[in-house]
Write a structure and sequence with these properties.
Helix content: 40-55%
Bound molecules: ligand F0G
CATH class of the largest domain: Alpha Beta
Largest sheet: 5 strands, mixed
Shape: globular
Number of helices: 19
CATH superfamily of the largest domain: Aspartate Aminotransferase, domain 1
Strand order of the largest sheet: 2-8-7-6-5
Number of domains: 2
Distance between the termini: 32 Å
Structural class: alpha/beta
Length: 482
């Protein structure tokens, strides 16, 4: 995106790309949306694309690829072992991150599986700035405990702290003193904390955490899935970094860490993942598991086409005008919502806009899954699919009670370069209508609940006929509009 001043009115985000391939979308009538959400058990993961107008579920694997990426796929070199594509990807990673070894994996959580198996033993701790669902599950199934060492501001929905994703380093030091370094499997920093609204981590914090990790001999792992947004925020929000290039910031983060893993469904705009490290021993340990869980060491479960496009995507990620598209669109959407007095996480982060369902639906009991209910209501009102990031996304406590999430968010992801500004405006319009009619929205309860990662396949029903009433009000206000 370019920083352009406008003569008339307010500045709007201006894209530095044009669209050359399009996909037709349909907006099904509200009567069908009511049925579809019921069929999906009020779980937006279980909706089908044919019923969805704007898919803001995630930015995972659905970002728009560039013409250069698509073109590169045609030149991919296919072979089970030793393809030239692997070498090109590895060389690109070495160039950008400066780490010698690369282990390809089919996606981010596959990397997490390998890391948790390698590092985590029964009774060990993994401190993080914030957990991510799949990361936590992998640590837990290997007998470890995730500890979230965020600063208090991290959970404050309305804030002007530019780096809410920073780890509380005093808490980290205290933990190491209390438990001993041997009990810490690794320290994990997630670039751009997914579950608290894509809030970034400052370079100063990477530096402080790295120092503590190194002085205690604890491996420092960076989850770089959301690194692109984080790079943009470091460059634009951290005074000390404003003259650094994106490449320099990336390299500095890499140098501070012992190991980096990522979901290339986000970083690099393809579908895949991987791990890089310069620790020979760790590399060999992980490598021994790779053929069992992923595939041979030169493809790791990925198609070579995706790998070829990943190398191009990673190079494009070093372009400031490419990586700022997401954050700038998100900032626009968040600011529009703020102007309307709608509760949304601030400051704007990466990944998407995050509605604060705790405040939006303060009249709905917490046990009735406010963020899930808001997700259903928004789908009914607009055909827009968001993702619950609240209590439904948590695991139950050992005693079977619900673990009420610290933040209750409806995430509206903006996959990069996919939606237009008019689509963002439409979404804001429908959210504004919902906010005015929020008293009509009620709660949800489970009728099918998987034991682990229940948010993927769990099914819920409304606690009353509130969805019919919401649809009736929609018809009253919008007539025969879709
Ligand atoms: N780490 C972070 C920070 C993530 O956001 C994700 C995925 C993963 C790890 C796992 O990667 O999906 O490739 O296995 N986030 C997706 C999302 C699912 O929708 O936010 P994966």
């Amino acid at each position: 995106m370019a920083n352009i001043r406008f003569h008339l009115g307010e500045a709007i985000p201006l894209e530095m790309h044009k669209v050359r391939t399009v996909q037709r979308l349909d907006l099904v009538p509200i009567e069908r949306r009511l049925e579809a959400i019921e069929e999906a058990g009020n779980n937006t993961f279980l909706l089908f694309n044919k019923d969805i107008y704007l898919d803001m579920l995630t930015d995972s694997g659905v970002n728009a690829m560039s013409d250069q990426q698509i073109a590169s796929m045609m030149t991919a070199d296919d072979s089970y072992a030793g393809s030239a594509t692997f070498t090109r990807l590895k060389d690109k990673l070495v160039e950008i991150l400066g780490k010698e070894h690369f282990l390809p994996a089919h996606q981010g959580r596959a990397a997490e599986n390998l890391l948790a198996r390698y590092y985590v033993e029964e009774g060990m701790f993994v401190p993080m700035n914030y957990h991510f669902t799949t990361t936590k599950a992998h640590v837990m199934v290997n007998g470890g405990t995730v500890l979230e060492l965020y600063k208090p501001e991290a959970l404050n929905p309305v804030s002007d702290d530019p780096f809410k994703g920073d780890m509380d380093t005093d808490a980290l030091t205290a933990l190491i003193e209390k438990e001993g370094a041997d009990k810490i499997a690794f320290i994990r920093i997630e670039a751009g904390t997914n579950l608290i609204g894509g809030q970034p981590v400052s370079l100063a914090n990477y530096e402080a955490v790295s120092k503590i990790a190194r002085s205690n001999g604890i491996p420092f792992v960076v989850d770089a899935s959301l690194l692109a947004d984080n790079l943009h925020f470091i460059k634009t929000r951290e005074e000390a970094c404003k003259d650094m290039s994106i490449r320099e910031i990336t390299k500095r983060i890499a140098d501070l860490s012992d190991l980096i893993y990522f979901s290339a469904r986000k970083l690099g705009h393809v579908r895949g993942g991987g791990i890089v490290t310069d620790n020979e021993e760790v590399f060999k340990g992980l490598l021994s598991m790779l053929p069992l869980y992923e595939g041979f060491s030169t493809y790791g479960g990925m198609s070579v086409r995706e790998m070829e496009a990943m190398a191009v995507g990673l190079e494009e990620t070093m372009d400031e005008h490419m990586i700022n598209q997401g954050p700038i669109f998100i900032e626009y959407m968040v600011n529009e919502l703020v102007k309307l007095g709608i509760p949304v996480i601030t400051p704007p982060g990466g990944l998407g806009a995050h509605l604060d369902a705790m405040a939006f639906l303060s009249h709905v009991p917490k046990e009735q899954y406010r963020a899930g209910a808001l997700g259903s209501a928004l789908y009914i009102a607009s055909g827009v699919r968001g993702m619950e990031r609240g209590t439904i996304s948590e695991e139950r406590n050992p005693d079977g009670t619900d673990h009420i999430a610290a933040v209750e968010l409806l995430r509206l992801a903006l996959p990069r370069r996919v939606f237009t500004l008019s689509q963002v405006k439409y979404t804001v319009d429908r959210i504004a209508w919902l906010y005015e009619n929020r008293e009509l929205i009620g709660g949800l309860e489970f009728y099918e609940e998987p034991e682990i990662l229940r948010f993927f396949f769990g099914k819920l029903k409304p606690t009353s006929d509130w969805q019919q009433k919401l649809a009736a009000k929609f018809r009253e206000d919008f007539g025969d509009s879709l």
